[in-house]
Amino acid sequence: MMRSRSKLLLSSAGMIAFAGLAAFGVMKGEQTAQSSGAVSLTLSARHEFSPGFENRAYSSETPGRLVIGNASLRDLVQQAYGLRDFQIAGGPDWINAHRYQVTLATRESPGIEGWKATVGPLLQTVLKSRFDLTLHQEMRQLPVYVLMVSPDGARLRRSMNETYNAHAGGPNTRLNHTFDATDIRLSGAADGSASLTDFFSGQLGRPVIDKTGMTGAFDVHLEWNREAMDGLLRSPVTNPEQPSIFKATEQELGLELKPGTGPVKVFVVDHAEKPLL
Asked: How many CB atoms lie within 10 A of CB 12?
């Protein structure tokens, strides 16, 4: 039986979430261009933020229309090339501060999965034509986490479900964050499905390298305390009733996340200009 899989876009590390969120901000000017056949591109400057979103980028999808709003140039580069924040280096300071809205419109209704497949190349066109963006790739030694089997052995359950699904949420009755997944692999599959290391990378803001030696798909349930994770580098929380994501991973999955260094592909911004709007 063929597995039914969908790609999970993880937004925890700065990648823009595809979700039905309301637009906000003040439009100061706009440019419109044609790209990729019947898809029209509109770029607008945004100079006000919504307090409810804490200056985070967002996306809003309706039939035939995708809006990426409140996005810095750094956010757009992440989305265009499928990167994490730690994979972007260089560029002028304003790439983090100035905010923009990109609107993609088409006569058809590709749906959210259709947009996911096409938004990267379309945004690359915007970055090159509107921001005169040039960049290059290089490998750098950066801080990483290594996913390993704990000394007491893994506690992962082999999946009997051939439909991939993953959901992160909270709060719950005991802790304040959860992650549930079925038919998930520890590291990326050939079809591009999100993996457990993708999830951990999104939560921790670092690359996560799988050295468990385990293959196949698993069902995962994880509960942890968000404050314990946020304060980990300053004062780790060791209370077993309020475990950090590190402690919960060891207790519930029988896996360990060990800090280290490793090679990471980085996109270096060589040149960018503010668009004339």
From this structure: 16
